[in-house]
Specification:
Blueprint: H1 10-25, H2 30-54
Helix pairs in contact: 1-2
Length: 55
């Protein structure tokens, strides 16, 4: 079982962006799609928490 992707810091967010670039360059597969979806959800959650903290 794989652990969910969680982003806690700006550094984590930058690493997630780098991973997105790597995945986009990789051939299509169901594993790639699952990881892209998990990264997107984790990045969105981080952005929402960051925006909430700034408000």
């Amino acid at each position: 079982m794989k652990l969910p992707i969680v982003i806690h810091t700006d550094e984590d967010y930058e690493r997630a962006q780098q991973r997105l670039e790597e995945l986009n360059a990789a051939p299509d597969s169901s594993e790639k799609e699952r990881e892209l979806q998990a990264l997107a959800e984790a990045m969105l959650a981080f952005e929402l928490r960051r925006d909430e903290a700034e408000s």
